[in-house]
Amino acid sequence: MSLHPNDIHRRARSASLMVALALALLAAGFFRAQVVQSAQYQLSSERNRLREVPLPAARGVIFDRHGEIIAENIPGYSVSILSPNTDTLRSTLQRLSGLIALPGPEIESAVRRFGRDPNRPTVVLSDASFDQVSVLEEHRTEFPSLIIQEAPKRRYPDGAAVSAFVGYTGEINEKELNSAKFSGYKSGQQIGRAGLEKQYESRLRGIEGSRFVEVDARGRVVRDAAARPDSNAIAAPALRTNIDLDLQRFIANYFGDSLVGGVVAIEPSTGAVLAIHSAPGYDPNRFVGGVRADYYRQLTSDGRQPLYNKAMQGRYPPASTFKLATAALALEAGVADFDTRMPQPCTGGYNFGSRYFRCWDKKGHGSLTLTQAIAKSCDTYFYQLGLRLQLSRLLAGGVSLKFREKSGIDLPDETTPQWPYAVEYFDKKYGARGWTNAVTLNLSIGQGENTQTILNMARFYTALATDGRASRPEVVTQSPDRVPILKLTTAQLEGLRNAMADVVSGRGTAGSAAIQGVILAGKTGTAQNETLVDHAWFVGFAPKDDAKIVVAVMLWQGQHGYAAARIASKVVEHYLKRPAIQPADIEGGGGN
């Protein structure tokens, strides 16, 4: 069948249109790829060819009040690997383990880091030693995907002496990376794990920089990519504290390796924390880059609990150091004055119902005034004073004196003290008829359901040392806060201070702690506890009428309060009698 000429013409025209349309589509495609999406493909190619290498930023240097360094940065090394996939990374790590010590858990940690951010160099060693770096440099050609670079390393020059407040740093974990609190952080970065490092993380953290390297299809580093300028890391600014490093060292040296306990020293008029020590401590330098398992086992197996901050986490019966609170509440309520004597003289104890409550001095103290009872620390007197005050008023007073609250120090993980909120506490705990008014006797002498931190007792004594206002402890000055807690007259406060001065004299329980030329006022305490060996307490201040320092000492199983008083006396004497310290210049940046 032959086609009509018109049909042939029509088909030819249709074919021409189809060819023209196809050519137009191809042209559009070429235009889109070559012109419209050129930048996108170029960027994608650039991303495949260039890999970003982070430049760690130096953390802010931490200084004491005189400009001495508490935490600084020194040059260190980090080792990372660029890898296209998990299998290649694992293979490279296995080969690396033949040159340097890479235990199985560290290899798995590196693999997990890669999974969190495959485009970021995987950190293998965040704190590589010089020997490790030397070995790797010798075999550099065998590991072309390896990145070895300088990285600022945290250093604490005074080591364990500052561990109670400075803390340490460690690598951010997966849970933290997924939390809103750490938005903007990346895998492999270091964060504050305890103490000031944790509390002031946002201020101590610098701004990470970056450089770029050119890689081939297998992720091997070809060369530094000079075409894209580096973004320099920015060190965090310095952090100045209220800590007196000279005093901190003195306390740490005094405790040495034999004594166990805690010390807090505060400037009473401002709340500035001059020193805070927990003995024994740990070396925060050994936590940098990850703590070794053997050192961590050594710390956790030590019965003296070096990782437990006894100054602000430990709760202990305050014993007779609490008698100043009982006395203050009695003066405030008008149930006693400084010349008041109790009906029953001290003969070595006190009969209450069917029980006999002993005084610490089995010989007895006889008939005493309130002033004398404070100096002699007579339990029999304070048993009766507590009964005269009555339980409900004693409990309410303890609440108003902040014995149920944290001190508010600017350090993480402070423990809340224990103090009954009201009489209902005992009904709830023991049943309405499951307890007697004997609880009043125990509470009035700092025993029973009353456990306080060393830090909280120091805060209470800042009110006794000044005008009745308690100062919130601050390691770094934020906004000094002084809260009135003692509703006493100037004469009553002076009377309490005079009685505490008698404690540290021939008339009191801490005569051996007297300081030549300085009137030290304070109170000893011998706390009964679950260890069966008493803890020793002393809280005091000096000079008596113009206090410059409050010191609280708790000596674990120290047996007698005067043992703690002698330590406090040495701390106070060193602080008040040493030569003046000249302030050092402080650099503005994080530095090395």
Briefly say what this structure is.
The chain has helices at residues 5-36, 38-49, 86-96, 104-116, 130-138, 163-166, 174-177, 195-199, 201-204, 245-255, 293-301, 323-333, 370-376, 379-389, 391-400, 424-430, 438-444, 454-465, 490-503, 561-577; strands at residues 50-55, 62-63, 69-81, 122-128, 146-155, 169-171, 190-192, 209-215, 221-224, 239-240, 261-266, 273-279, 349-352, 355-358, 469-471, 482-484, 521-527, 535-542, 549-555. It has 592 residues and is an alpha+beta fold.
Structural class: alpha+beta
The CATH H-level superfamily of the largest domain is DD-peptidase/beta-lactamase superfamily
Tally of helical segments: 20
Number of domains: 2
Radius of gyration: 34 Å
Going by CATH, the architecture of the largest domain would be: 3-Layer(aba) Sandwich
In terms of per-residue confidence, which ranges show pLDDT below 50 for 5 or more consecutive residues? 41-46
> What's the pLDDT, averaged over the residues?
90
Estimated helix fraction: 25-40%
Number of strands: 19
Largest beta-sheet characterization: 5 strands, mixed
Q: Termini, distance in Å?
A: 95 Å
The top level CATH class name of the largest domain: Alpha Beta
Outline type:
elongated
User: Beta-strand percentage?
Assistant: 15-25%
Task: Tell me the CATH topology of the largest domain.
Answer: Beta-lactamase
Task: Jot down its keywords.
single chain; 592 residues; Penicillin-binding protein 2a (Domain 2); Beta-lactamase; 2 domains; five-stranded mixed beta sheet; 19 strands
